[in-house]
Structures are given as C-alpha cells and as structure tokens.
Design a protein that fits this description.
Blueprint (H helix, E strand, L loop, with lengths): L1 H10 L14 H14 L3 H14 L6 H9 L5 H4 L4 H15 L8 H18 L2
Helix pairs in contact: 2-3, 6-7
C-alpha cells in the first residue's frame, strides 16, 4: 500500500515529505485531505507516509531503520525526540531479531544522534 502511495504521489509531483499535516493549521490539513482523495487513500495513510518520510530525512535513517522505528512505536520525529537513546537502541535490537528487519541494527551512537539534536532544538524553541 505504501509503495503504491509513494508512486502515486511521485507521479502527481506532490511534495508531501513534510510531516506537518497534523501539527499545522486547517489549510495544511485540508491540503493533505485533498491529496488523500486524489490518490484514493485516507488522510491517515497520507500522514503516516509523511511521518515516515520525515524519519527518513534524519542522517543515517533509510527504509529499514525507519521501518524498525515504526515497529517499536516511533512513528514521527516528534515521538523520537521523547525517546531515551539506550532504551530505543535496545528495542531496535530486539525488533530487528524478532521480525528480521534489515541487515543490521543502528548503533547506539546513531540512535543517540537521531534524538539529541531534536531535544536540543525543542529546548531552544521553548526559551
């Protein structure tokens, strides 16, 4: 289903890589709803696709690592910033073995690199 959505969105030349549908105003929400209608899917699917694309924009996160993150319950960058690197790394190791996702597990250093900059950005935005 996701591959079909990606292909349709790409074919229609939509840039729906911003996972902002849920957090910005009604206009963006309406645009996402219109996109969902045009490609024949749901708004939830469009948001999931956008969140996955947002995760994949992090340095070192590709398809396998984003799939692992989603499998452990981290479905967006917003959720990622609330994770504890060591705990997330342990969960990723377990899910990789249990579900045989990917060829390797991200290192603790990589996992930390995905989280720490987001936490710093959040702290700066609250000052």
């Amino acid at each position: 289903m996701m591959k079909r959505l990606v292909a349709l969105i790409h074919a229609m030349q939509f840039a729906c890589c911003e996972a902002r549908c849920a957090s910005r105003g009604t206009r963006t929400e309406m645009q996402c709803a219109e996109l969902a209608h045009e490609v024949g899917t749901t708004l939830v699917s469009i948001k999931e696709l956008a969140n996955r694309a947002d995760l994949m924009r992090l340095h070192g996160v590709g398809g396998d690592f984003s799939h692992m993150l989603v499998e452990v319950g981290v479905t967006s960058c917003r959720e990622l910033q609330h994770c504890i690197p060591e705990k997330l790394h342990t969960q990723l190791e377990k899910i990789s073995i249990d579900k045989q996702i990917g060829h390797r597990v991200p290192t603790l250093a990589q996992t930390t690199q995905w989280i720490i900059p987001r936490v710093a950005q959040r702290a700066l935005s609250h000052q």
